[in-house]
Amino acid sequence: MSPKPSPLHVSILRHDWSVEEIQAILDLPFTDLMFRAQTAHRLYFDPNRVQVSTLLSIKTGACPEDCGYCAQSARHETGLERESLMPIDEVLDAARIAREQGATRFCMGAAWRNPTDKNLEQVIAMVEGVHALGLETCVTLGMLTGAQARRLKEAGLDYYNHNLDTSPEFYGQVITTRTFQDRLDTLEHIRDVGLKTCSGGILGMGESRRDRASMLRQLANLPAHPESVPINLLVRVEGTPLQASETLDPFEFVRVVAVARILMPTSYVRLSAGRSEMSDELQALCYLAGANSIFYGDRLLTTPNAESDLDRALFARLGLAFEEMDPERTEPGACHKAKQALDAIVEH
Ligand code: SAM
Ligand code: DTB
Ligand code: SF4
């Protein structure tokens, strides 16, 4: 069973959005949208602190799925060299470096449709090792059964990442080898055992604004908002079916970040893939819109990330700081004042 949020909490965070309501927020004049997002952000977060995670691909390429954006699908000729599961000592070396550089969470990704039970035990040894270094742990391994989710929870995993990627309406144009419902099922298994959920999507794959509103609706109407919501800008990988996707209007990206912040005010909204192609000014707008988490380090899974030196320089220019690990952080509190403020933010 899902851990029960407090009744007070339920009364504050909505899970009953319509696409039309969300699209109306997405359509607001830009300055109004930014003001509302920043107001929502300040209800629950220090606006000058950013949570920092580092990614590592622990098993790369040769994935049987056909995700149209992905460098790692065996169905696309992307020239990526496949690598089998990384030895644990290499994983722990990378985690130590991430910790030294200031990351508080270490996310390990594997190009699997789903892990076998043997794979899972190998990953669990890595999770235990990373946890022992004092880092939060996150893995993204594809679809999970309920029993596998329970095993990961018992082993002490903190977060599981599994993205919805896009709207249910657009989904079939991006992925055919597993369904949108498969993704919802995995998210349910994760929630039911009490793992924290990391789930978001990708923008710039040719979807419409309505699709973006619909994807946000799916995320915000989950029985519990994902604790972490990664918003990825498509990295156009040569050899993938989406390599020639049109460039997304950068302001549209910022708008989606802002609406994610308003709909899920207690969640971390992560500025994820695609930062290496974003200007400093665009990233600053994303932080203003309520993004408060990034992937930090020179690589994502298989593609380059924004360089750490540039991130440090931008943080200094903007007066942003890396968030320290806060093991005491509990469910964000609910109060009458916050409810009134949230209602005012979404009214128009
Ligand atoms: N294989 C697992 C799965 O798909 O669930 C885990 C790894 S997969 C690479 C994790 C997520 O990364 C995808 O769901 C997608 O949202 C994101 N992603 C992958 N390739 C991307 C790209 N080229 N641009 C933006 N996001 C991407
Ligand atoms: C997420 O939402 N984005 C990350 C992480 N979760 C696993 C992955 C981004 C991958 C970008 C393309 C690549 O490097 O292969
Ligand atoms: Fe495989 Fe994940 Fe890439 Fe899809 S996104 S092809 S499941 S590695």
Automatic annotation (TrEMBL):
<comment type="pathway">
    <text>Cofactor biosynthesis; biotin biosynthesis; biotin from 7,8-diaminononanoate: step 2/2.</text>
</comment>
<feature type="binding site">
    <location>
        <position position="70"/>
    </location>
    <ligand>
        <name>[4Fe-4S] cluster</name>
    </ligand>
</feature>
<feature type="binding site">
    <location>
        <position position="67"/>
    </location>
    <ligand>
        <name>[4Fe-4S] cluster</name>
    </ligand>
</feature>
<keyword id="KW-0808">Transferase</keyword>
<dbReference type="InterPro" id="IPR013785">
    <property type="entry name" value="Aldolase_TIM"/>
</dbReference>
<dbReference type="InterPro" id="IPR002684">
    <property type="entry name" value="Biotin_synth/BioAB"/>
</dbReference>
<feature type="binding site">
    <location>
        <position position="198"/>
    </location>
    <ligand>
        <name>[2Fe-2S] cluster</name>
    </ligand>
</feature>
<dbReference type="GO" id="GO:0051537">
    <property type="term" value="F:2 iron, 2 sulfur cluster binding"/>
</dbReference>
<dbReference type="GO" id="GO:0051539">
    <property type="term" value="F:4 iron, 4 sulfur cluster binding"/>
</dbReference>
<feature type="binding site">
    <location>
        <position position="107"/>
    </location>
    <ligand>
        <name>[2Fe-2S] cluster</name>
    </ligand>
</feature>
<dbReference type="InterPro" id="IPR006638">
    <property type="entry name" value="Elp3/MiaA/NifB-like_rSAM"/>
</dbReference>
<keyword id="KW-0001">2Fe-2S</keyword>
<protein>
    <recommendedName>
        <fullName>Biotin synthase</fullName>
        <ecNumber>2.8.1.6</ecNumber>
    </recommendedName>
</protein>
<comment type="function">
    <text>Catalyzes the conversion of dethiobiotin (DTB) to biotin by the insertion of a sulfur atom into dethiobiotin via a radical-based mechanism.</text>
</comment>
<keyword id="KW-0411">Iron-sulfur</keyword>
<keyword id="KW-0408">Iron</keyword>
<keyword id="KW-0949">S-adenosyl-L-methionine</keyword>
<keyword id="KW-0479">Metal-binding</keyword>
<comment type="similarity">
    <text>Belongs to the radical SAM superfamily. Biotin synthase family.</text>
</comment>
<keyword id="KW-0093">Biotin biosynthesis</keyword>
<dbReference type="InterPro" id="IPR058240">
    <property type="entry name" value="rSAM_sf"/>
</dbReference>
<feature type="binding site">
    <location>
        <position position="138"/>
    </location>
    <ligand>
        <name>[2Fe-2S] cluster</name>
    </ligand>
</feature>
<comment type="subunit">
    <text>Homodimer.</text>
</comment>
<dbReference type="InterPro" id="IPR024177">
    <property type="entry name" value="Biotin_synthase"/>
</dbReference>
<dbReference type="Pfam" id="PF04055">
    <property type="entry name" value="Radical_SAM"/>
</dbReference>
<keyword id="KW-0004">4Fe-4S</keyword>
<feature type="domain" description="Radical SAM core">
    <location>
        <begin position="48"/>
        <end position="275"/>
    </location>
</feature>
<dbReference type="InterPro" id="IPR007197">
    <property type="entry name" value="rSAM"/>
</dbReference>
<feature type="binding site">
    <location>
        <position position="270"/>
    </location>
    <ligand>
        <name>[2Fe-2S] cluster</name>
    </ligand>
</feature>
<dbReference type="GO" id="GO:0009102">
    <property type="term" value="P:biotin biosynthetic process"/>
</dbReference>
<dbReference type="InterPro" id="IPR010722">
    <property type="entry name" value="BATS_dom"/>
</dbReference>
<dbReference type="GO" id="GO:0004076">
    <property type="term" value="F:biotin synthase activity"/>
</dbReference>
<dbReference type="GO" id="GO:0005506">
    <property type="term" value="F:iron ion binding"/>
</dbReference>
<dbReference type="Pfam" id="PF06968">
    <property type="entry name" value="BATS"/>
</dbReference>
<feature type="binding site">
    <location>
        <position position="63"/>
    </location>
    <ligand>
        <name>[4Fe-4S] cluster</name>
    </ligand>
</feature>
